What does this fold into?
Amino acid sequence: MSTSPSEAYFAPCPRGLEALLADELAALGAHAPQAVPGGVAFGGERRTCYAANLWSRLASRILWRIAEFDCRDERALYEATRAIDWPRYFALERRLRVDVAARGSPLRSLEFAVLRAKDAICDRFRDAFGRRPDVDRAAPEVRVHLYLEGRRGALYLDTSGEPLFKRGWRAGRVAAPLRENLAAGLVLLAGWRPQEPLLDPMCGGATLLVEAAAIARARAPGARRRFGFERLADYDPALWAQVRAMPPPRPPVEPSILGSDIDPRALEAARRNLEAAGLARWVRLERADVLERPAPAPSGVLIANPPYGERLGSRRALADFYPRLGTALKRRFAGWRCWLLSADRTLPARLRLAPSRRVPLWNGALECRLYEFRMVAGANRRRGAR
It folds into this structure.
């Protein structure tokens, strides 16, 4: 990883957040970030790579591209991979993992492609040292990503290690329906300003609340974890110390953030997570039913990931819940911008509300919509939704 600005990177992210991520990376010094489906390609120096790992709220990983090649068959894959000077990038003693993703590749088996790439890397080390590095899929120290598209292949070194949405603070036992980078994306898509109230009335383990508070307080999302680039051969501890010591992109703000839930176990998990993240003092929690609670202020932003059938117990309960939720929002949240994430395309019809905006997003493999409902006094009747 040289200091040349010509180094090429790719940052995957949840689908639907690519444009936001491109802006975020540009603010961190990335050169010519280009949003493509599923992520952002960009150039940058080593400092940019370190800063992106530390500060990106939206990326899932920062991948460093080290080779592109024609890949018509497994033999071409093996030869192109073996031609790379792998000992230049990491030491023989590092435990290795190889992953693959493909679209339209002529290779017959992705499992065999992984095996051939792994063998090529290990054979290059054996040529140099007479020994092969250990392969460890469970706890690797170095991750290599192979991407195959059509008859082209690319190899990337993972500079992040564990996915970047693993911030290092999660302490609660309640299952998180949102990854942290998607939760941060919801807050940013909603256009929330830390000076205005924010409410998650179905907060669960507080993933969304933690991300909102971290944004307001200008906390680096990667401040509590380690990164893959620290295990690469040209890791620069002095440069990393400089990047960590840099002031945040924006000054911290005193936010007004509130979370509530009807489930006391969820609230206990929320408290533990907020305390583990060091953000408990900036978020107020209370036990409340979203169908009965009042708005905490005359105006603000409500963001929620409404429960699906599991938490409500039955389809009948779910069918009853959504119209009552729509009524509660109309009656109690006039003046608020309410954003709801759902995989149910009929959500607006069930709520009997007309969305002012729909943003396609992916929560893992689940296609969703983020709906905005601008609550005004009086009726807010549905005029059709998709």
User: Anything to note?
Assistant: The chain is about 30% helix and 25% strand. Confidence is low (pLDDT under 50) at residues 382-386.
